[in-house]
Amino acid sequence: MRCIIAGYPFDLTASEVEAAMSGVKPEPITGESVRIGRRAYPVKQVGALVTKQDRRDFSAGEVVRAMKRLGFTCDPAPAPTPQPDLYGL
Questions:
Q1: Residue 70 gets which letter from DSSP?
Q2: CA 47 from chain center: how many Å?
Q3: Which of 20, 30, 47, 84 has the most crowded CB, counting CB atoms within 10 A?
Q4: Per-residue pLDDT tens for 14-49?
Q5: CB neighbours (10 Å) of residue 51?
Q6: Do 48 and 34 meet the contact criterion of CB atoms below 8 Å apart?
Q7: 88 pLDDT higher than 90
Q8: Could you report the per-residue pLDDT of 54-75, keeping only the tens digit for each?
């Protein structure tokens, strides 16, 4: 499937993405994520490994759209954890 990420065209398949992520340890998820196999990866990590581009060059939304079109499940950013009130206010 052809997709545009950071203004560049890429021909990606689900099997190519799975192969690229095989054996890669997921980074902590702080934003949107994509499930590849039994693991969840941050979309920016997947985008960087698959496209070999700097993470600053593309948006998470571009990678989410491409991964959804390839049939992967994408999850939204986790809800922020409330911080304890240290001053009792």
A1: T
A2: 6
A3: 47
A4: 999 999 999 999 999 999 999 999 999 999 999 999
A5: 21
A6: no
A7: no
A8: 999 999 999 999 999 999 999 9
Annotate 4-49 with DSSP letters as a single string: EETTEEEE--HHHHHHHHTTPPPPPPSS-EEEETTEEEEHHHHHHH
63 contacts: CB under 8 Å, gap ≥ 6: 5, 34, 43, 44, 46, 47
Quote the pLDDT of residue 15.
Answer: 95
Q: Cβ neighbours of residue 37 under 8 Å, at least 6 residues apart?
A: 18, 21
Q: Which residue has the tokens 């021909």?
A: 11
Tokens of 76: 């939204």
Q: Which amino acid is at 43?
A: V
Instruction: Give the residue-averaged pLDDT of 3-19.
Output: 93
